[in-house]
Amino acid sequence: MKQILAALCLMFCAHAQAINLTGVPNAHDPGTLTRDGDTYFNFTTGDGIWYSTSTDLLKWSAGPAPVFSTPPVWIANKIPNFSGSYWAPDVIHMNGYYYLYYSVSTFGTSVSAIGVARSASLKNPSWTDLGIVVQSYGGGGEINAIDPALFRDYDGKVYMSYGSFFGGIGVTEINQATGKTTGNVTTILGGGGKDIEAPYITRDGDNYYLFVNRGKCCQGAASTYYVEVQRASSVTGPYSGTRTVLPNLDGKYKGPGHIGVLKQDGCNYTSIHYYDVNDNGAAKLDILKMTYDSGWPSLTRNFSIASCGGISDGPTVLRSRLSGKALAVAGASTANGALVQQQTYTGAKHQQWYVVGHGDGYYSLINANSLLGLDDYNNSTTAGTNIAQWSYWGGLGQQWRFASPAAGYQTISNRYSNLTLDVLNLSTAENAQIIQWNLTNANNQQWSLSRP
């Protein structure tokens, strides 16, 4: 028995090792880890917006060049004596591009602005700056325009939270065609100069979670940063139930900050920076795994990179195993009720879908062109019913689960009808209709998933 217990202990201890990031893990205020194809990107505070890349989340290499070789021309007019250091970038895919949000500021003041640039690719970037998203002018009660963080909700809408000290934390919806705000900003936390900054919003089930940093950053091993979380039933709050999820000091990890969540293979991989007390307080990237316990997030460093039994959030092309053709909206329509077909993939947005995990094994699928949801039309439970798109309203007929009948392929079944996406009559023809049918696991019900 002792030998068995010892063996089990050795197995557990081996499993419980914290992952080891190697290469160039330097980071301060890291953005949400983002994937383009087979490569992950970590954008971080620095001159020109520095970044690193990895193919396994473990070994990181410096990017070949920063995003900006010279500052966008608008910055000189808004931020006098700009040093060239861009703060706290974050990136999200919308409208066929990766949008990179960044902040510029005069340190210690609320003379700040958030700008945005975009590129069709991260692996082969060509950045175009689109200018100011929001700005603050130095008033003590303003929301300080720094620390942008982007979030896509189940309905496909994108929100940006931001703010630091001064007027607190704000959230605003982003127009996905322009990358700019829709106009309204809601204050959701803080104000009055309270030491709150670096917000990040994510959702699991019916709850929205707002992570923020407390204390002071940027002092190496003397930093007093720690991370709190609150939750709400709406993205705009009210948020309540404050809990500390990362203390100021845990072993070598000092002053953790700037949370982002990568939803990968059903897992929640949480990126932060910390100051390494064993390395003269150097700022480094750390990745933790987040789960939920009784409705609250829990973070651990004791995990390995492996599937959690789900699929990855983000822009996705779904191709039929039978025909090789992509799931697409007929005629690139943006209308409610437009039918869904298979088409030869051309890279068009109506052939791409945003996968958004709900945390319970179900996902919404939002068309990248129309921003409407994949829908069991009229909530039918009849085999043979056409599949269409419809404005997302959260019904069970717009929620889908994935299962893998064969390596590299998934079936996609509706939560309401329990029927499965199916290419009608085993067709390989262009524009063949997509229906729902009883699960057979035939090749016309199997789909590969890839990044655009």
Automatic annotation (TrEMBL):
Chain ranges of the Ricin B lectin domain: 314-450
Entry keyword set: Glycosidase, Hydrolase, Signal
CDD domains: beta-trefoil_Ricin-like (cd00161), GH43_Arb43a-like (cd08998)
PROSITE patterns: RICIN_B_LECTIN
Site (Important for catalytic activity, responsible for pKa modulation of the active site Glu and correct orientation of both the proton donor and substrate): D147
Gene3D superfamilies noted in UniProt: 2.80.10.50, Glycosyl hydrolase domain, family 43 (2.115.10.20)
GO terms (BP aspect): carbohydrate metabolic process
Pfam families in alphabetical order: Glyco_hydro_43, RicinB_lectin_2
Family: Belongs to the glycosyl hydrolase 43 family.
Name this protein carries in UniProt: Beta-xylosidase
Biological source species: Janthinobacterium lividum
